[in-house]
Amino acid sequence: MKPKTIPEFHSALSPGDRAICDALRIVIDNGLPGAESKVWHGHPVWFLDGNPFVGYSKLKDCIRLMFWSGADFDEPDLKPGTGKFKDASIRYADVKEVNERDLRRWLTKGLNIQWDYKRIYKRKGLLERLV
Length: 131
Fold this sequence. Notes:
Blueprint: H1 6-11, H2 15-31, E1 36-40, E2 43-48, E3 51-58, E4 63-67, E5 79-80, E6 88-92, H3 100-112
Antiparallel strand pairs: 1-2, 2-3, 3-4, 4-6, 5-6
Helix pairs in contact: 2-3
């Protein structure tokens, strides 16, 4: 059964994966105080004005942190997605790999670099820059 809340998502994880997600959530919540956070498509996602901004998911051997507009952050640790979208992500296998300073910097960059995923279907797949 898919989790309906972020605490439910975390509670279903192994202790190591839960530690990673707990660390990520603290920094994200502090860095995006006005954001809406919820489980969306099975994993935690933070939204700004209805637009997906950042989220994380459980992969087979790690936790993947993804920024929807991260490909434009010019950050070597964030690997761009392979499709036509502007996402980029980083994978964590241990909580010690989470660098809070990097994460705070990426959150700040994301506030200044956002693509409009909220209206992507309305525009038939065309992305427009918000900020």
